[in-house]
Amino acid sequence: MSDVPYDVQDIRKDFPILAREVNGKPLVYLDNGASAQKPQVVIDAVTRGYAEEYSNVHRGLHYLSNLATEKYEGVREIIARFLGVKDVEEIVMTSGSTEGLNLVAYGWAMPHLQAGDEIVLSVMEHHANIVPWHLLRERQGVVLKWVDVDVNGDLDPQAVIDAIGPKTKLVAVTHMSNVLGTVVDVKAIVAGAHARGVPVVVDGSQATVHGPVDLDDIGADFYAITGHKLYGPSGSGAIHIRRERMDEMRPFFGGGDMIRHVHKDAVEYADPPMKFEAGTPNIVQQIGLGVALEYLMDLGMENIAAHERALRDYTRDRLDGLNWLNVQGRSAGKGAIFSFTLDGGAHPHDISTVLDKKGVAVRAGHHCAGPLMDHLGVSATCRASFGLYNTRDEVDKLVEALELCHDLFS
Known about the structure:
Layout: H1 8-12, E1 21-22, E2 25-26, E3 28-29, H2 40-51, H3 63-83, E4 91-94, H4 97-112, E5 118-122, H5 131-140, E6 143-147, H6 157-162, E7 168-174, H7 186-195, E8 200-203, H8 207-210, H9 215-218, E9 222-226, E10 237-241, H10 243-246, E11 259-262, E12 267-269, H11 283-299, H12 301-320, E13 325-328, E14 337-342, H13 348-357, E15 360-361, E16 363-365, H14 370-376, E17 381-385, H15 392-409
Parallel strand pairs: 3-15, 5-6, 5-7, 7-8, 8-9
Antiparallel strand pairs: 1-2, 4-10, 9-10, 11-12, 13-14, 14-17, 16-17
Helix pairs in contact: 2-11, 3-11, 4-5, 12-15
């Protein structure tokens, strides 16, 4: 935990976009669940990376290539430290969670699963942790087994464990719902699945943003993160893969950098993690991600979590005072994510448009969570998702804008 007091007004100064206006109103950015804004240190690192330090990595012996390689590979160590991983070589660099989860699908699951084998997953999953498994269903006859959430939006770990049968070969679960904010006890799920000999892949895209994680403690076989939600650049991310699972995987992408030798009649692959990192990577983006993670660790993930818990509680109290607002997900320990609809049938797209006129940015739609929308019985919701720089004053502005929506649409 950082020794520096958490001063949200001071922190906001690190994010230049928060000083701008939208439609003549101060920007209230509540779309952090989709992508978070970037602090100046990340913007500076990306600018410097392209303007002063750019070169390809791993292949050159000149100064710029060595500098880029040193910075790029240093990010692997930063990610490992951020995630609580002791073995740096278990970190595979990716363009984000989607690539990481597809790497698991093609590199591990495809050669290990046959027709009739099962994948257990929750109804809360983001499409990034659904569609890769549907591809296996379509192409190999794999069966998807779904576990529902309860009325509060909580996922019972035992329900996931109980869904594991003799044909189950993988459990795929989110650590935190991007729609409901529900935090899942993935450690309990991992322990139960491992007791039955089944590996677990966790989508950590949301959870790692809002508080500390310790992957060596959780014990998941695969854990994916994405940089653009972690206040880093788009096109950056990583997946943690246990070494024993790496040994069971075949490469997903083929090309330069992931090979040791290539001949006309044979190829010898590099050792992991390079075995899974083909071609020129998103060099500058990954360097920016490293700067973003160091920024978060300097603030203290525990401090960020405490700030967001207080913001969640304040938001919940304010929204509960609007008896015409329907909030989806009432998990007691949820994160600061609120998905909602209004009585009267106003479409979330219309609601978000009115909010935007007041400078309040929220997301409207299915949030890449089709099965959860079906489970909730809605086609779409508005979602206000909070980050480390949001304030109570911004919550009040959200409520004021929602009251305007109610007046317009009721």
